[in-house]
Amino acid sequence: MIPVIIDNDTAQDDCVTILEGLLDPACDLRAITMVAGNVGFERQVENAAMTVAVAGKLGEVPIHLGASKPLTREWEGAEDVHGDGSGGLHMDIPEGLVSEVGAVDALCAAVAAEPGVISIVAIGPLTNIALAVQQDPDFAVNVKSLYVMGGSNNGRGNITPAAEFNFYVDPEAAQIVLDAGFADLRILTWDPVTLRDVTFPRPRYDELCQLGTPLSRFFKHVCDATIDYDESVGVNGSTHPDSATLACLLHPELVLEQARYRVDVECASDLTRGYSVMAWDKFDCAPNATVFERVDGEAYYARLKALLATPTTPSVELF
Ligand code: BDR
Ligand code: CA
């Protein structure tokens, strides 16, 4: 089993990632850390708690609250894309479910306690990870692998023409992380990998929604708003960048092509804020990341379907 911490902004595919982390036998999910991103911070915490509850694992994995805004900028969310991130479901958060230890302290403590053991899957803006780098000079070297969903490989954005959401929201944090010297930093991009390999058109999406399990029903709740939005802007299906990022860590055979790049993020310009420049070997600059260039979408879809078909007894009745 691979020891993992998921750092996330829980809505839509972040929920799917948490399900994967809780239920994939290859994953030893140690903690869930929360960062400002997709939807309001409190709502994200509720979404995370509901996700753990649907898996029947409420209270088994700690949830730590992290940065409620980017390092230097105002928070910008994606409620136009995700709605509230869980299709209007609600749950009262039981007392004690949310840890008193903050996300950055929890990340630093976990990694320092077991140097070279813990992998982090960061699928929201990189604020918490940047703060951990600033708090502990050994943090980056002590993380086994850092898997990031963010940026595009010199390609299209989604929140602006130039920028993918996670890098756009906190570009300074992304650059701190890219400069931090992580031994094994891997990036799954929006363009091309998400758009080409892990976006599932409506008939396949419907199949995932109709498996007759609590997880499948929950999946439909959390993803309906996003597929509607995406189809309205020309993206042909349900997008799964976050959960595919964790899957690539747990099942490396899903990565069909990858290469070393020097990745930097635009922080100065307003026009291209959050744009990820990915320089390949021709440019002779020292690489700082491995960028996935192609993922096995068919094999990933099969995994996702098997995950959502898993019977669970939810800890709380949500629907
Ligand atoms: C990223 O932004 C979020 O909306 C998704 O969860 C994903 O992490 C895609 O740009
Ligand atoms: Ca996310």
TrEMBL record:
Entry keywords, A to Z: Glycosidase, Hydrolase
E.C. code: 3.2.2.1
Highest taxon above the source species: Bacteria
The protein's enzyme class: hydrolase
Keyword field contains Hydrolase: yes
Domain Inosine/uridine-preferring nucleoside hydrolase, chain residue ranges per copy: 4-301
Gene Ontology MF: a single term: purine nucleosidase activity
PANTHER family: SI:CH211-201H21.5 (PTHR46190:SF1), SI:CH211-201H21.5-RELATED (PTHR46190)
Protein name: Inosine-uridine nucleoside N-ribohydrolase
